[in-house]
Amino acid sequence: MNKYEITVILSAKLEEEQRNEALEKIKGYITRFGGTVGEVEDWGKKKLAYDIQHQSEGFYYLINFEGTQDTPNELESRVRIMEPVLRYLVVKKEN
Length: 95
What we know:
By secondary structure, the protein is an alpha+beta fold. It has a single domain, classed as Alpha-Beta Plaits (2-Layer Sandwich), CATH 3.30.70.60. It has two helices and four strands, in the order βαββαβ. Strands 2-3-1-4 form a four-stranded antiparallel β-sheet, with helices on one face. It starts with a strand and ends with a strand.
């Protein structure tokens, strides 16, 4: 199993309950495709470097996970179409 991390920026327009639902959905995708979720860091609401979808702020989250080599591709294909997600980035960590 390889170690990865995904950084996700969620819309600042979301209520806390909606943000939690989106995070649970992302964690569900990780486990669904053979991964295990590690530490989840909430970086809070931050100003974006540039406006995305007419928004200047977003909620940042970092999720560490382990998975097979197919897990990140499957995860990206699902996260890409999630409406509350403004941006995301999956990175493979060095062991």
